[in-house]
Amino acid sequence: MALLKVKFDQKKRVKLAQGLWLMNWLSVLAGIVIFSLGLFLKIELRKRSDVMNNSESHFVPNSLIGMGVLSCVFNSLAGKICYDALDPSKYAKWKPWLKSYLVVCVLFNIVLFLVALCCFLMRGSLESTLAHGLKNGMKYYRDTDTPGRCFMKKTIDLLQIEFKCCGNNGFRDWFEVQWISNRYLDFSSKEVKDRIKSNVDGRYLVDGVPFSCCNPNSPRPCIQYQLTNNSAHYSYNHQTEELNLWVRGCRAALLSYYGSLMNSMGAVTLLVWLFEVSITIGLRYLHTALESVSNPEDLECESEGWLLEKSVSETWKALLESLKKLGKSNQVEAEGADAGQAPEAG
Asked: Which residues cross the membrane (predicted)?
């Protein structure tokens, strides 16, 4: 028994074809939107690629770009099919391919749904790549004279100013790296020598942060050196006083920014997916309604359209059987090829 059977007359078939034609062209516009969102996300990720550890984060934008292009292609083709469906002579050339096209549409909808899920689930991998990338970026902050790394100081400073953040997890991360280049250290100074000797790795570590960590909203002039030394500043206690630095780490700031972007893109992609599913269902009804016309010469006759020719369980069993037959036929062909090669080897 057919699933969700609906009766169609000529007027209903024409309205269905016209409605699907309009929906397909609207879906082409939606595909352009998905493509644009993927392109925008890719540009935003490339802007901060210096503080990201790998290219895994580009999977989502690349997928959105690809699905946007495929959406435009498939829906343009479906719009043409719906337009030709109003003319029996033009529809005849599409008839042999329509069932295969519907299968491709179902696969496309499945992939689109998975891409939408990836937009929501990518937060974990993005967090790890930001953690490693920011750590390396802070380590190379001082290498202003090293080719390939001379831009890192500017990148980190602009990042901290734009996102109002400091360090990887917080401003104390700068206490663990030498962010001042040896070029600007006076090695004849006793203080510099003592600090370098006191460190196992021979690094010049200070309880200070770069200027880009300063919060301009603070009424007090920025304190960026000797942050843990209360006696170095008047009326200052680093444990109780609110520091005039950005408190939030840059990993949390970037994660929040990109997370909100991808959540919005995931929601848009899910809406487009629902729209695509409704178009695929409409195409299936149009296909079966035109196939079940008893007299093709009588355009006014009634026909029936359905979603599945059999029930869900019967359709699933038939699919499994066809897959088993396909597997057996491939096995027989392989055995036949082996048997043909055996006499030649003898």
From this structure: 20-41, 101-122, 255-275
Residue listed under structure tokens 């990338």: 133
Q: Which of 172-181, 282-291, 327-336 has the lowest mean pLDDT?
A: 327-336
Task: From residue 132, give the alpha-carbon distance in Å to each of 167, 238, 342.
Answer: 12, 28, 57
β-partners of residue 308 are 3
Q: How far apart are CA 203 and CA 196, in angstroms?
A: 5
6 forms beta bridges with: 305
Q: Does the CA dihedral 84-88-92-96 come out positive or negative?
A: positive
Tell me if residue 198 falls in helix, strand or coil: coil
Q: What is the pLDDT of residues 79-95, one digit of tens each?
A: 888 888 777 777 778 77
259 vs 313, residue with greater confidence: 259
Confidence of residue 192 (pLDDT cuts 50, 70, 90): confident
**Continuous segment of H or E residues that includes residue 304:** strand 303-305
Angstrom distance (rounded) from CA 97 to CA 112: 22
State the residue for tokens 């391919």: 97
Paired strand residues for 104: none
φ, ψ of residue 305 to 5 degrees: the values are: -120, 150
* pTM of the shown model: 0.79
Q: How far apart are CA 346 and CA 343, in angstroms?
A: 5
Percent of the chain with pLDDT over 90: 34
Specify whether the CB–CB gap between 327 and 38 falls below 8 A.
no
CA distances from 213 to 31, 167, 207, 247, 344 (A): 41, 8, 13, 9, 78
Contact assessment for residue 71 and residue 34, using Cβ atoms and an 8 Å cutoff: yes
Residues sharing a CB contact under 8 Å with residue 236, sequence separation 6 or more, in sequence order: 223, 230
